[in-house]
Amino acid sequence: MSDADKIVLTGIKPTGMPHLGNYVGALKPLIEQSKSNKTFMFIADLHALNTISDAKQIKQHTYEIAALLIALGLDLNNAVLFRQSDIDEIYQLNTLLMNVTPKGLMNRAHSYKAAMDRNIANGIDVDAGVNMGLYTYPILMSADILLYNSDIVPVGADQKQHVEFARDIAGYFNNLYGKTFKLPEPVIGQDTGLVPGLDGRKMSKSYDNTIALFAPENELKKKIMRIITDSKLPEEAKNPDESTIFQLYKHFADEAEIAEFAEMFRRGGMGYGTAKTMLFEKINSVLEKPRAEYERLMANTDEIEQVLANGAERAKIVASKTIQRVKKAMLGK
Ligand code: TRP
What radius of gyration do the chain's Cα atoms show? Predict the structure, then answer.
């Protein structure tokens, strides 16, 4: 099979607005890939249920992710964009896969182990605060992957184990019932290089150093002005590779612009205030249009619902065929 024929699938959990690091490292490459491959992309609202118990929040975050993908130019001809919970077959496959999934596999899941480790460190019951949604999270994720006959699943390194579990579960199933599922492969995004946050460490929610992807223009500017720098004077020469400003700029500019900006650092004569203004203008010029489209969509959620309904219709065609295969194999019907 050529790469272009491979079915790509990925899910995004609706837990809040992605930041610039998510954009550069994950969203941008996914949207690029949606131009060449048949892509299933869904908002994993069922996966958010083990941490978010407010329906309004789940719905709002679902709209945010959908609007964001549409605004960033997800190719809606190749890509099937839908909401996980809209496809009834997912609940069915989840139940069916429970029976071929060894409990021991779930015990080894990183996210469950991390929760246990925290509890042990705090001297409380190992399973305190662990619901079955968290414990069986990898089964639901396997159901997502297998329901749509996925060949490749682009994920962050933290999700690699889950895709490997999906492959394992598909293998157990095929051994018991005959070949029913393809074996999916995780694809870990090529290293796009460090996307630093405001303090120079990797941009991450856990460091509280992020810039929201579609932060309003004035907030974007304020955040950029707050980037931590050293205390070099404007006239001094500076090493661009040591500058958070330059490292961020690199992800948004073209090669000629990057070379020119680097030269301005090395030459001296440019203060950090000027560099930050240039960075703001660059990022803003890239995000201005998609941000406006995002805001328009968020004010017209009916339009988002329409896109999702259309996606659900297309996703169901594949999902219902898979579930028929599985029911026939397991239940003889
Ligand atoms: N678990 C993924 C995350 O937290 C989201 C997700 C759910 C997913 N189902 C998926 C990713 C299927 C890839 C394939 O980021």
Answer: 22
Distance CA 278, CA 209 (A): 20
35-86 per-position pLDDT tens digit: 999 999 999 999 999 999 999 999 999 999 999 999 999 999 899 999 999 9
pLDDT of residue 193: 74
Q: What whole-number distance in Å separates Cα of residue 270 and Cα of residue 34?
A: 40
C-beta of residue 164 within 8 angstroms of C-beta of residue 105: no
Whether residues 270 and 319 share a domain: the answer is: no
- From 8, 42, 137, 141, give the residue whose CB has the most ligand 1 atoms within 8 Å, as the site to mutate: 141
> Is residue 201's pLDDT more than 70?
yes
Residue 86's CATH number: 3.40.50.620
Please state the pTM of the whole predicted model: 0.94
- Ligand 1: distance of its center to the CA of 130 in Å? 19
